[in-house]
Design goal:
Radius of gyration: 20 Å
InterPro entries: A-crystallin/Hsp20_dom, HSP20-like_chaperone, Small_HSP
Helix content: under 10%
Strand content: 35-45%
Protein name: SHSP domain-containing protein
Distance between the termini: 44 Å
Number of strands: 9
CATH architecture: Sandwich
Order of helices and strands: EEEEEEEEE
Shape: elongated
Number of helices: 0
Family: Belongs to the small heat shock protein (HSP20) family.
Number of domains: 1
Largest sheet: 5 strands, mixed
Length: about 130
């Protein structure tokens, strides 16, 4: 069986949760890719238009919250001709399992992509057990 992967363009989607309507302006759900290896889970969140100081990562009671503020591109000297780039906030939450070592989470932001590294606790890391004779 041959699997094919299609590249699908996904536009920013506005959050439709009623709890998000209390925030001023539109709130978008960032697209996220999640990868896993033996030692960690790696999360990549697409947040174009956000600067490093506009990123927020909070961890409270096992809930990881990602936020980002999208600022307008103009510096006040331009007049609008066409505006298609959505201005607002990114917001996404994840519930972390006990397999994540929550005090060792790291993150970096480069080229509009937030990378969050979620290390696994030692008991969740697979290990090979050797068998001896006797």
């Amino acid at each position: 069986m041959v699997e094919t992967k299609e590249l699908q363009v996904k536009e920013k989607q506005e959050v439709s949760s009623s709890t998000e309507h209390t925030r001023p302006g539109p709130v978008f759900t960032p697209s996220v890719d999640i990868y896993e290896n033996d030692r960690e889970i790696i999360m990549l969140a697409d947040m174009p238009g956000v600067s490093t100081d506009g990123i927020g990562i909070d961890l409270k009671e096992g809930i990881l919250t990602l936020t980002g503020d999208i600022k307008p591109w103009e510096d006040g000297k331009e007049s609008n001709v066409l505006i298609e780039f959505g201005i607002g906030k990114y917001y996404r939450q994840f519930t972390l399992s006990e397999a994540i070592q929550q005090d060792s989470i790291e993150a970096n932001f480069n080229d509009g992509v937030l990378k969050v590294i979620l290390p696994k606790v030692a008991k969740a890391v697979p290990r090979k057990i050797t068998v001896s004779n006797g």
